[in-house]
Amino acid sequence: MPRQIGTAALTPVAGWRTMELTARLRALADVLPLLEAPDADFGHWELPPPRDGVGSLGWFEFGPTADVWRAAVAAGHWIITGFDWRTWLAGDGRAFREDPDAISTATPDQLAWLLTAIVRSDRFTEGSIAGAFESGLLSGISRRARDLLQERRA
To answer: What are the residue boundaries of the structural domains of the chain, listed by start?
Structure first.
């Protein structure tokens, strides 16, 4: 049965079968070495030259590391449809945005909500995913997925 968070009903992550959750966590944990690599190419900003005196805001062009990360998020089915991510991020999710240590205690549900917020916000604010990479948030999420995997094995 979906749980109510804010104004959105969510499919409960806690209801995943053990094998499914393990595979989903592994998808995130496996990209950690790429995210933490000193030469990680997450992407760059493209700024086209002005045309007829009119400038453009440009866009963020994802690099190979970002492509692998996005594929891992998709393979793990981490993005939740029908989730009011803006309300969650302004309330309960604020701690993850403002306190880098908060991610170290995140549940799988909270990882899904946070990943949904990051990916969805990029549709409205170009570069949100890149900012999460640059701040270390994406590494923190992958690190927490790795830790949750280790806890499941113990």
So the answer is: 17-38+62-153
